[in-house]
Amino acid sequence: MLNFQFYNPARIIFGRGEENNVGKYTAEYGKKVLLHYGEGSIKKTGLYEKVISSLKKYNIEIIELGGVRPNPVLSLVRKGIEICKTESIDFILAVGGGSVIDSAKSIAVGSKINGDIWEYFMDKSKVIKSSLPLGVILTIPATGSESSTSSVITNEENLFKRSIKSTEYIPKFSILNPEITFTLPEYQIACGCSDILSHLMERYFTQVEHVDFTDRLLEAAMKTIIINAPIAVNEKNNYDIMAEIMWVGTLAHNGLLDTGRIGDWASHYIEHELSALYDLTHGAGLAIITPAWMKYVYKENQDKFIQFAHRVFNIDFAYNEKERTIIEMIKYLENWYKTIGLPTKLSEVGITSSNFEKMAEKCLVGRGKAGNFKKLDMEDICNIYNLAL
Ligand code: NZQ
Ligand code: ZN
């Protein structure tokens, strides 16, 4: 186990009806709020009315900025920063999924600096020193952004999708009510579950040894998603099932399961190029890339893959049949994605090989190589895209 620090002050407020108390929680931090949301689902579902009424009850002044789209873009972040500065906003309330939360986080940082926020995405030597406080009402379990240190934004001028990382903007509070997710389309539930499972697998496939405790926590979390996701896409409005998924989604990405180990993250980097260029949903991209990544890298540490196959998918194995067992496990995983309605091949979403080199090259800008389980160069990444065709 490696040395580590674990710090995550996000206050998680979980359960039925908690969105109606958002005014009370917000009033602890601010008086003038930027209410940030997406392309309209919160108005259709009635959540918007509840939020406005609760904020008004506590005499909180509200400035609105809606219109965050999936794979959120830099231009809206810049607009939000401008509003926060000119309106002297003292708190940002993000009501939505990872896209809204990530946009809010970048606005929160940008409001505290004089230069261009994008520089922080491309130049990792630039350190984020402060942020406006923010709060969250989560509407889709997926990214874990409700308590993560990341904000992922696409610069639509050059289609670079990149992240910043900081504990400064970890939300002061995140309200998680599984009932709010009942209006999600099945496809978004599936994509969210795929993202959560990926956050767990990215951490699981480490070359660091003697991390048995976090291995076993990760296995429990992965099994919870694997069992509950197919039920969630078939049984709408099942509070108990969504509650399991929502809580795992937060813990999958709040840093706890990183402790003492180094995750891989190549599948995420390789996927981000797809969602940047083709506007693919992140979780669908991961369902396509992860099996291909596994096929490409498993020889780097077959025992880790065997442990995963055995403990997570309950696949028995013979010691002289390791490779066959791993290939079998990858088939199980692909079938699981199919069961929840996700694609597992680029051809299914109409993506051809035409931009593989361009995406692989962009993926490595500012990184050198991608991933830690096996450090991937441009040729490796192209090979993975080809395996995913
Ligand atoms: O925009 P609206 O109208 O709200 O609709 C959204 C959107 O179309 C809809 N939706 C959300 N909650 C709903 C709902 N529709 C009905 N009822 C509800 N309760 O769902 C669609 C997807 O929303 P989005 O926020 O884009 O989804 P998600 O949470 O999956 O976020 C994806 C973004 O987060 C990034 C991804 O790359 C992608 O850009 N990630 C952020 C991470 C982080 N900050 O830690 C880590 C992840 O690995 C990921 O990269
Ligand atoms: Zn993700």
CATH class of the largest domain: Mainly Alpha
Low-confidence stretches: none
Q: What fraction strand?
A: 5-15%
Order of helices and strands: EHEHHEHEHHEEEEHHHHHHHHH
Give average pLDDT, whole number.
97
CATH fold-level topology of the largest domain = Dehydroquinate synthase-like, alpha domain
Estimate percent helicity: 40-55%
When the domains are counted, the total is 2
Report the bound ligands by name, code or SMILES: 5,6-dihydroxy-NADP, zinc ion
Describe this entry's structure for a reader:
This protein has 389 residues and is α/β, with parallel strands linked by helices. It folds into two domains: 11-179, Rossmann fold, CATH 3.40.50.1970; 186-387, Dehydroquinate synthase-like - alpha domain (Dehydroquinate synthase-like, alpha domain). The chain is built from 15 helices and eight strands. It has helices spanning 22-27, 41-45, 47-57, 74-87, 98-110, 118-122, 186-204, 212-234, 239-251, 266-278, 282-297, 302-313, 322-339, 356-364, 378-387, and strands spanning 11-14, 32-37, 61-65, 91-96, 134-138, 150-155, 160-165, 173-176. Helix 4 (74-87) crosses helix 5. The longest helix has 23 residues, at 212-234. The protein is globular, with a radius of gyration of 20 Å. The two termini are 37 Å apart. Bound molecules: 5,6-dihydroxy-NADP and zinc ion. Residues 143, 195, 198-199, 268, 282 line the site of zinc ion.
